[in-house]
Design a protein that fits this description.
Elements lengths: L3 E5 L4 H11 L6 E5 L5 E5 L7 E5 L6 H16 L5 E6 L18 H12 L3 E5 L14 E4 L2 H11 L5 E5 L5 H11 L2 E11 L2 E8 L6 E9 L3 H12 L4 E9 L5 H6 L5 E4 L7 H4 L3 E3 L3 H12 L11
Parallel strand pairs: 1-4, 4-5, 5-6, 6-7, 8-9, 8-11, 11-12, 12-13, 13-14
Antiparallel strand pairs: 2-3, 9-10
Helix pairs in contact: 1-9
Length: 313
């Protein structure tokens, strides 16, 4: 087992610090900034020679800048004679552009995966890719964690009567909803969603019975919250007793606050993969930390143990 060093990019200092606290180690000192012309500057202020390094950098409101900072951190670490570098990106950017849906468009998720690999990472650790197949875009080992262990425990603790129905807000979330419902031994429903364009919903229809049930929506991210907001209204119209949502990544862009305020969602639970100031003042939002999952993953990687116990699929 090699000594662990944890380096944090500017978007993930708080999350990396929580992981360090769990592992009982100190965050590696770095110097991050910009030159006068806006170019990113990074420097590792401690020796990482022969250490197993984990560099944290998520993606939030400025993904392009965070990616450039990550590339430079990886380059600096690879030039510092470390044993191995694992990129820990709790929220992977450009994940929604994962296939060619029209002529003359990029597969952005593949490009970002290539850039991270070429920058020097030896492994990649993340939480809930928008599409699981994105793991195949990397030419290095990938571990895709799920917030299910934390979310499932919270659901069980807050629903002792188990009068619940898991709801997939679109076709892409059906597998996740079925996994949750199987472990909770409850009903499952889904919302059929048809888009007219990126971020624009043309129609939504309910498939399943939700009357007199406490409905729980599960999804990988809460972006504009338009989907879960409209889904909550449909559920209540069809006789649901209450609606809550669990989403891993709190992107919360555009009209997210307004959409949540005008919805029938009693509570939106999100993880701490993204540092988003909106989570502090939107009353419907509550944060559930998944730092323990990442700490366990890092320990297993460092000790060369199996990661199987951390996966829920």
């Amino acid at each position: 087992m090699k000594d662990i060093a944890i380096v944090a990019g500017s978007s993930s200092v708080a999350f990396a610090s929580r992981v360090c606290s769990i592992l009982g180690i100190e965050l590696t000192k770095t110097n991050l900034g910009t030159f006068g012309n806006g170019e990113v500057f990074v420097e590792i202020d401690e020796s990482v020679r022969d250490k197993d390094v984990f560099v944290f950098q998520s993606s939030s409101d400025t993904p392009n800048g965070h990616l450039m900072e990550l590339f430079l951190l990886l380059d600096a670490l690879k030039r510092s004679s470390c044993y191995r570098v694992t990129t820990v990106m709790p929220n992977f950017p450009y994940a929604r552009q994962d296939r060619k849906v029209r002529s003359r468009v990029p597969i952005s998720a593949k490009l970002v995966a290539n850039l991270i690999t070429e920058a020097g990472t030896d492994r990649f650790l993340t939480a809930e890719f928008h599409s699981p197949q994105i793991a195949g875009f990397f030419d290095v080992p990938v571990d895709n964690l799920y917030s299910a262990p934390v979310f499932l425990n919270h659901i069980k603790e807050n629903n002792p009567d188990n009068n619940i129905c898991l709801v997939a807000p679109d076709a892409g979330s059906v597998k996740v909803a079925k996994m949750y419902s199987g472990r909770l031994e409850c009903d499952v429903a889904m919302i059929y969603k048809n888009r007219s364009g990126p971020g624009k919903i043309k129609e939504m229809k309910l498939i399943g019975e939700v009357a007199d049930k406490n409905c729980i929506i599960v999804d990988d991210m809460a972006d504009s919250c338009g989907t879960i907001a409209k889904a909550s209204n449909i559920l209540m119209t069809n006789g649901a007793r209450s609606v809550r949502a669990y989403c891993t990544h709190a992107v919360l862009s555009g009209e997210a606050e307004r959409n949540l305020h005008n919805s029938n969602i009693d509570k939106l639970y999100v993880s701490d993969t993204i540092v988003n100031p909106k989570t502090k003042y939107i009353q419907q939002i509550e944060i559930l930390s998944i730092a323990d999952l990442f700490a366990d993953a890092i320990k297993n990687i460092n000790e060369e143990n199996s990661m199987k116990e951390l996966f829920y699929y």
